[in-house]
């Protein structure tokens, strides 16, 4: 199960695979799912203020009995309830029941109010105060990163984007599957070693697959148009309306 770690630009390391809590909802079920992920061997939990289940993750983290340094916890500033980032990080730490998170992200550039440099300076202070070991962003476009980097004292350690990709590409994989066997499968997949030829064959298959999807969906649309057209023509015919 060698899903090892990636070294971030600030020297900290992040496990290459994470369990995400986005779709888990609230209550005991959410805690049980995080419990299950930790039980099968996930050590990286990815949550966010807006997932509204940091507290459930916190319970599972504590029930795991693992030492704090044996877990990597990511959470995000999502602007929930209009709270500022200074208040939000304190709420997240309290919800998770920890003194620091390993990675704190700005969930989306639109949260950068009044602007990216102002919010990023506050993120830098959060890191300097020890509430986050690393700071980063999420869903940032190149232009957003350029604005950020122009004034940043600390460069973002990560830009989390939606991925369904693999470790061979240097990506960090996050899953939220509720099925134990799938979680075990994800970890086992860490043993699979792909050659550069394998990776490029998969890339080509992906491109071909994407083209097929476009063709399939275009065909589907044509079939729908044809069926609707036939229905309209049939109805027009029934009512004696001429279609020119
Ligand atoms: N920063 C951001 O803006 C952002 C955006 C999106 C996601 N994320 C993070 O990424 C995490 C994962 O995202 P996600 O929930 O979209 O990913 P996911 O792991 O692909 O889960 C989505 C659905 O796919 C199913 N699934 C997962 N693995 C499967 C498999 N091997 N075979 C068949 N079905 C499978 C799961 O159902 P089962 O439960 O039945 O397995 C789940 O309902 C989130 O929890 C969050 O932490 C971050």
TrEMBL record:
The record marks 76 as: Lowers pKa of active site Tyr. The active site is at 51 (proton donor). One of its GO terms (molecular function) is oxidoreductase activity, acting on the CH-OH group of donors, NAD or NADP as acceptor. It comes from the Eukaryota. Residues 16-161 form the NADP-dependent oxidoreductase domain. The chain crosses the membrane at residues 222-241. The keyword Transmembrane helix applies. Substrate binds at residue 107. Keywords: Membrane, NADP, Oxidoreductase, Transmembrane, Transmembrane helix. Pfam families: Aldo_ket_red. InterPro entries: AKR, Aldo/ket_reductase_CS, NAD(P)_OxRdtase_dom_sf, NADP_OxRdtase_dom. Coiled coil: none annotated. Belongs to the aldo/keto reductase family. This is NADP-dependent oxidoreductase domain-containing protein.
């Amino acid at each position: 199960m060698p899903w090892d770690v990636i070294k971030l630009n600030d020297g900290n390391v992040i496990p290459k695979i994470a369990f995400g809590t986005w779709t888990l909802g609230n209550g005991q079920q959410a805690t049980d799912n995080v419990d299950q992920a930790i039980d099968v061997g996930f050590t990286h939990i990815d949550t966010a203020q807006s997932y509204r289940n940091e507290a459930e993750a916190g319970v599972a983290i504590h029930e795991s009995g693992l030492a704090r340094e044996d877990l990597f916890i990511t959470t995000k500033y999502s602007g929930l309830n209009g709270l500022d980032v200074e208040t939000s990080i304190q709420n997240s730490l309290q919800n998770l029941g920890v003194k620091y998170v390993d990675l704190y992200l700005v969930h989306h550039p639109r949260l950068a109010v009044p602007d990216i440099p102002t919010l990023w300076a506050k993120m830098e202070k959060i890191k300097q105060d020890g509430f986050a070991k690393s700071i980063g962003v999420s869903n940032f476009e190149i232009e957003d990163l350029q604005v950020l980097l122009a004034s940043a004292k600390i460069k973002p350690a990560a830009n989390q984007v939606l991925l369904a990709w693999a470790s061979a590409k240097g990506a960090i994989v996050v899953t939220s599957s509720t099925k134990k066997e799938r979680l075990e499968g994800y970890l086992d997949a860490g043993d699979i070693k792909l050659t550069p030829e394998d990776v490029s064959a998969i890339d080509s298959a992906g491109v071909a697959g994407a083209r097929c999807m476009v063709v399939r969906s275009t065909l589907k649309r044509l079939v729908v148009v044809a069926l609707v057209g036939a229905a309209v023509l049939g109805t027009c015919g029934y009512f004696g309306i001429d279609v020119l």
